[in-house]
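Chapter review: from sequence to fold.
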Amino acid sequence: MAVVGSGVMASRLSPDDAGLQLLQNSLATGAALVVLILALQPVSASFNPVVTLVERAMGIIDTRTAAGLIVGQVLGGLAGTVAANLMFGLDAVAFSTHQRTGPALWLGEVIATAGLLLVIFGTIRSGRADRVAFAVGGYITAAYWFTSSTSFANPAVTIARTLTDTFAGIAPPSAPAFILAQLLGGAAAYVLVRFLYPSLAAVSAPAADRKVLS
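The C-alpha cell string follows.
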C-alpha cells in the first residue's frame, strides 16, 4: 500500500518529473518500512518471502511457519495494492502494462535482494537487532536509486504490484523473472551471511530477533 499509494501520489503531484516521482516514492517507502518494522516487531515484521526462506534455510523457523508467513505476505501485499488503488479512485484491480524486463534489470534485482538480506541478517547477527528497522528503511530508500530495477527485492511486493497500472506497477509477464532474480539474490545472500558471520552460523536467533525481519 505504501509503495503503490506513494507512487500514485507522486505521479499526480509531479507528472512531468520522473526523478522527483522516484524521490517521493522512495522516501515514503523507506519511512513506511521503518515505522512498520518498529510497530510490528513485537508481533511479526516479516514482510518478505525471500527473508522467510533464508530464515528457514538457517533453521530459525520451521517449514510450516515459513509457509504460513509466505501466504500471509502475498495476501497482505495484494490487499495493500487493492486498498491503494481504491484510495486514489482507481479500479480495485488493474493489471499493469509497465514492462520491466532485460538482463540489466534482473541483475539489479539480484543485487537489490542480496543487499537487503545482508543488511537484515548482518544487523541482527552482529547483535544490533534493535536497529534493523532503520537499516532496512535506509537501504531500501537508497536502493531505489542505485539499482536499475528500483529495488523491488520482494516476491510478495512484486506480485502485488502487478495489480496496479500506475507508476509502481509491473506487468504480469515481467514478474516471474523478477521473482527468480530475487530468489537468486536470496541464495547468494545466504552464502555470504554464512561466510561473513561464521561464528554465529550454527546459532538460532533469539525469539525476539525472529520478529524483526522485513
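Two observations follow directly from the output. The helical segments are 2-13, 18-40, 49-57, 63-87, 103-125, 132-146, 155-160, 175-196. The two ends are 15 Å apart (CA to CA).
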